[in-house]
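tool=predict chain=A
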Amino acid sequence: MAAFSSSAPLSSFSKSKSRPPSSKARSNPAFTINFLRISNKTHLKFATSPLKSLPSVKPKTPVSPSNPFSLASLRRWAKSNTWGGYELRIAAKTVLGGVQLGDSISVNGTCLTVTAFDPVASQFSVGLSPETLRKTSLGELGPGSPVNLERALQPTSRMGGHFVQGHVDGTGEIVKFELEGDSIWVKVKTSPELLRYIVPKGFITVDGTSLTVVQVYDEDDCFDFMLVAYTQQKVAIPKKKVGDKVNLEVDILGKYVEKLLRGGIST
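tool=predict ok
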């Protein structure tokens, strides 16, 4: 996996003598660091067309169920000749262990269905619907783009993050990178419709990575989070630059609570 290094787009980063106005965010940074955990996912499966593929193979090195997350590279983004939609072909190794047609694999936080795979060539394909292209940033990817991949959660796994469905609520735009020690602050701007579900010390999924929100800036429609050195090496976010889009999934509990309160709770 490509580690974050000086060759990454550091032109987007700036060092600052001051941090955001929240004193709580600075007074106890360890709280944030301990909970910057990569998420485990609960994906739904979708029906797929019967496509030919090589049979499932057992990986030489078993995949740890507590760390199903990996960084991969997009190989092809094109119109599908099979079913007329759009197709992503992705180079990957770790996530192909035991994969089957119809399995769900999260690509930058988007739950997608495996339509073909080739464990010998270490690649798999997923289809994209028009709604997926409208709601996510996947349409902006190109050959060689790094993507975050994660298999669906197994019931026997440790849950190192929050429950994530892989159903992207919308996108945000990176507006700032800032270095502090070996960690990176990332500030993201999103719509007010999504920001109302984002709270300090709450959950947020950015390109499929489960992160802890540090501060919310309602006046700017922004929020920020911190990436520790280890996380920087495992995800694609540090490889992006200011102005790039990221996929966002908010904590679903907030949406359920809002709906119940709006409609009134009867007993």
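The CA atoms of residues 142 and 201 lie 34 Å apart. Helices lie at 23-27, 29-34, 130-135, 192-195, 229-234, 252-263.
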